[in-house]
Amino acid sequence: MTTSSRFTVNKQAVRDLQSQTIQRFFKDRLGKLKYFGLPSDEMKDIIDWQPFFSRFVAVERGVPPDGGERQHLLMLNAFRNNVLSKLVLLRGDVDRIILDGRDEDGNILDYPFDVVTLDYSGGLLYRDTKGQQYRLAAIRELVCKQARHKLGYLLFISSNLDNCKDAEVEKTLQNIKTELLRYGVIGDEVISAYLHHDNYEPRLKIYVPYFVNQVASGVNYNCDTEHTIFYLGNQDVRMMNFRFCLTYDPRTTAPRFPRERLAQIINSSMVEIKGGKCSETNLGLPNLKKLMIDLEKSKVQ
Amino acid sequence: MAKDKYFAYGAVLEALSSGLYPDKRYVIREFAQNAFDALNAWRKVSGEQSLSPIEIKIQRPSIFIADWGIGMDQNEAEKFRYLGYSTKDKKENVGFRGIGKDSGLAVAEKIIVTTSKADVPMRYTIVIDAQKMLEESASGRNPPLEELLANYTTIKDKPEDKAEHYTFVELHKIRKDAQDVLFNIDGLREHLRRNCPVPLDPNFNYADEVTARLKTNIPSFADVDILLNGEKLYKPFPPNYTRPEYAPIFLNEEESAPLLAYCWYCGNSEKGQFADKENSGLIYRVKNFAIGDRQLTRETLWTATPERAFYFFGEVHVLDEAVIPSSDRTDFEDSEARVRLYQRCRRIAQILNQRAGTESAQRTFGEAIGGATELINLRQSEVTQSQLAIEIKPDVVYELRKTVEDLQKRIDRTAGKRKPSQKDIQLVNRGEKVLKNAKGLLKRMESGKGFSDITQQLELGEQAKQVYQIVIECLREEFSSDLKRLERVVDSINKALSRVFKRPSA
Could you report the per-residue pLDDT of A5-42, keeping only the tens digit for each? Predict the structure, then answer.
């Protein structure tokens, strides 16, 4: 199997899981949904999900010397797959578009969306020349803009592990440890296991959902995180995929989210996709709940 | 001296692109025309019955025009870059000059076309860098066309499913001076509805009937769905129309002569011209694409009473292949064939004028009957209650007599027609009934019955009577053209006199 075809089957499995999430979350509104995202080169997600959506707002940056040929190709694919009339193409960098509220040609990013799929080819913690993590800033902006409409939606994020060695990740995990302590839970061992794991996936498994949950709870949203997915992508690049189900709840006003949700994020197993097949794994990491039980036991003894 | 090797230079680009199309929306129509030809060509090859839709997508900064037509192979894609090159047959295609595509140079920075032909497992992407070509040709150097085409057009190929056949055009980055027009979706929608071979609106009650007639009488007739940003477009129509009628126009008076044009039209079910001015009148069409607008038929077919051109709406489908549309499709090329077409089609104007005249006469006849009925009812009631003053008797009698004469004239004229229509007969029958009543009432009024004499009622003296009559005479002169007002004034005077001079009852 070539890396490309391996990528295709793995990516298809991710799409299938996302598809299940969409159908579960929007079971009464399928066919009327609005999509915003970065479709894959061949628009597989858009084509697969066509029956669910009445409108697709897709971003294609294009590569400067090609003079719009990539965007032309995207529109051609839309035509060939009978979604041209449903598709709105925004040109430019997706993060810039979210932050500016419009694309480089002045087309407005017309909120709200039901499904947002940010299928980054790079890392999520990418910093610009000014040292700003503007990809995360864009996600924060998107969550805030979506919140103005008080509607539930799904946020899917895919990224590779580039830039994941960012000190920001370690700092955040340390903060989580302090936060757990504030809740009366000693999470040192668990967090330490994550920080010292050979792979970076476990750290992002906590960092990204923690970030999204924090932003969401600040704008009255509950955020359920589905099992984080990791797989080998194109050219055997290690990829991760996150699925968040966000529901508006005016009672959710806490700057920090509840202990239960933090425990859910940490203890949730991951899904590994190999050769298109999914399997659950915790990558040998300790479980916070188990730890809590152990603590309870030690107290009793 | 080196320039002498060439026969065409870059400056011609400007003339071929912006010079030909003063209205920038024509550019989109040109590409829709190419798509229509490609679809027809595919239908011919595949034997499919109907044409797939043409999709037009406006998405800043570009406009896309896409079709599932026959597509182009490598050779055709290469030639697509040439200026004024076309192998299309005039008889089979709407466009044949090979310059329509070049109109894109006037509105977009680039023309990007991806195309694939059935049975060819490749697709070809042609990029014409209009911006750079025009910039260079406008520079003092004015390079030869060949050089510009070689430097600023490219073709790339990629594998494609062999079964695929399509052409996907992007007018990439619409120029600033064309954006107001081309990104105005309402304006573009109207332009395409009026000019392209889209179906008749299903809300037009006779859409199916007219389409069936056109298919029967015009062998090559076809319409195509055009989706503009997903919205299906239909030809517009005005409200309040009559059932359509049809007029084949032959080469000569013989019905066995070749058909030059086929016309259908609907009249206005209300009075005169259609209130919806934009959608009234007749439109010439060649292969179902509009040529010119409603003014063109008015100017070329109506030699007299031109206002009657807008009593109707419809289409004149031109079938004479010798009649060639001009490049901008605002008229036909000047030729003997065009002269012949206009001459023969004037028959349409004659038919329509005649029809408009008949309808106008019927309408005014109906109005006359209505007016007479109203007058009779009024006078009948006034006479019964003796409400009319004797002083105005000559005037009301004259009024009724004129009404009787007018009705009689209309009845005689309509009944005397060689072939009166059903509506004529109905009008005559109604008119005769009203006339009979009018004559009876006239007789009664002429005898003086039903009028009241205020001078007698008030037992006025001779001198007072004379004064009263002088006043009434003066008023009659003053209001000779306004009987109603005279009636009101006299009535008002009589009431005032009654109030002041009426003797107390015994």
Answer: 556 799 999 999 999 999 999 999 999 999 999 987 68
Report which of A296, A291, A283 is spatially closest to residue A188, judged by C-alpha positions. A291
Nearest neighbour of B112 by CB, restricted to A72, A88, A107: A72
Vertex B380 angle, CA B376 and B381, to 5°: 125
Residues in B touching A84 (Cβ below 8 Å) = 55, 57, 64, 66, 230
Please indicate whether, in this complex, the C-beta atoms of A72 and B170 are within 8 angstroms of each other: yes
Complex ipTM = 0.85
| Residue of A75, A83, A108, A110 for testing the chain B interface, max B β-carbons within 10 Å | A75
Q: Which residues pair with A231 in a beta bridge?
A: A239, A273
Alpha carbon distance A145, A110 (integer Å): 10
According to the model, what pLDDT value does residue B134 have? Answer: 83
What gap in Å lies between CA A102 and CA A177, rounded to an integer? 39
CB contact under 8 A, A68 and B66: no
Q: Tell me the per-residue pLDDT of B83-93, one tens digit each, with 9 for 90 and over.
A: 666 666 666 65
Given this model, what pLDDT does residue A147 score? 95
Min CA distance, A10 vs chain B (Å)? 24
Element holding B470 (H helix, E strand): helix B462-478
In angstroms, how far is CA B426 from the centroid of its own chain?
A: 31
Calculate how close chain B gets to A14, using CA atoms only, in Å: 26
SS (H, E, C) A254-293: CCCCCHHHHHHHHHCCEEEEECCEEEEECCCCCCHHHHHH
Cis ω before B239 (30° cut-off from 0): no
CA–CA dist B454, B459 (Å, integer) = 8
Verdict on whether the full-model pTM lies above 0.95:
no
Residues B247-295: pLDDT tens digits? 999 988 887 889 999 999 999 988 788 999 899 999 999 999 999 999 9
State the nearest Cα–Cα gap between A41 and chain B, in angstroms: 15
A·B CB contacts under 8 A:
56
Q: Which of A75, A87, A105 sits opposite B170 (nearest CB)?
A: A75
